[in-house]
Amino acid sequence: MMTIKRRRSFFLLSATIVAAAHLTTFTSHALSSNTAAATTTTNNNNSCTTSSSPLITPEDIQKISRGGVAIIPNWLPPHLITSMHDDAQQLFASGQFRPDGLTNTAIKEQGFTQKADRQTFRGGAGWDDNIGDFQTRREFADRMRELRVQLATALDRPSLAEEGTLKHEMTYNWYEPGAKLGRHLDEHHEETKGPSGWTMPTRRSVTWLIYLNEGWTKEEGGALRCMPRSDDSIEKNMVQVGCHEGNLQVGWVNDGVDPVFLDVFRESGGAALYQVKKNNDGEEREILSVRDFEVPPQPIDFSKFMKEEVRDSFAQISTSRLDPRFASAGTASTNSNHHDFDCSDEPTILDVTPVAGTLVLFDSVSLPHLVREVTGKRQRIAATGWFHEDSQFSLEMS
């Protein structure tokens, strides 16, 4: 029997248990291979083929690769903006949206209210089900699949292109006036997730958002606030952010220029922090931690494991204060105070006004972000989601 081994202190999960977990805990429905095949049908019932024209420029690819934010105005065709906006409104009116805070305990532990937090269409009926304007969502899914395949090649993340049940997430988000969402990352290293780590075969790799409100203005609020590093740090960065050889990023050194990765599959049985150095022969790892170590339970401060000479320059991306999903249930705040933190003390801030048709893309592991309060009188509606890569596993045959 094949089992999936979770590191050191974790128990073994059999393949059958993991399979069951996929069906019950991964509530964000993905585009299955069957749906992908069906997306060749458009709204007017004509067969369409995948276009060879690029949906994203090399400049935007470089922004994602280096940890920046790709913002592409007018990316979604006008007819899809209108039909998707109408579809979301119909689904909301029929009760298909659900509370969606920063964890799956939004109502009980995060003080969720419909007026203060986002609501999402992804569970229950699911994105793929024949409810609402299914033909519009098929057409949109086909366009996003083409984008994902292009990203897989351009970012050298080949498993992005793969189809599969419960792999890629697609949602509608709905913010009532007054709603907002606190600072967070969309993905974390599995070893930092405690009991919920190492249970899924894929992870979030690229985050995407597409806005659906015509005529939205800055005065109506609801901006996506991103916290990238400085333009100078992004420009100097020569190593792709987010993941290196399966090891996810947890921080930065050298004023945000170089990503720091966490390797938890060392020969010692411990973990190490490292950066990647480029040289004439390719690249090599430079170990930044004093010695191999056991990753502690939350809250985690990785700086205490760093060598003294690099400790002062180390910046951890997620902490229990800044990101409620990075803390365990026992250490995370049980109120909604984190929603009030707007990151005004961050070194760099990028606000993106949710103008209809705009596509936003960034690496899911390395870029903190939030949604500012909707101050206008209408709902803020968007399509959002994540393209997944294969996760890192240790397989044992018995």
Structure explained in plain terms:
- With 398 residues, the chain is an alpha+beta fold.
- It is built from seven helices and 20 strands.
- It has helices at 15-25, 33-38, 58-65, 78-93, 134-154, 231-236, 308-311; strands at residues 2-5, 12-14, 70-72, 98-99, 118-121, 169-175, 181-184, 202-211, 224-226, 243-244, 247-253, 258-263, 272-279, 282-287, 315-316, 350-352, 359-363, 369-371, 380-390, 394-397.
- The strands form four sheets. Strands 3-17-8-19-6-5-4 form a seven-stranded antiparallel sheet.
- The longest helix has 21 residues, at 134-154.
- The radius of gyration is 21 Å and the shape is globular.
Characteristics of this structure?
alpha+beta; disordered N terminus; disordered C terminus; six-stranded antiparallel beta sheet; 398 residues; 7 helices
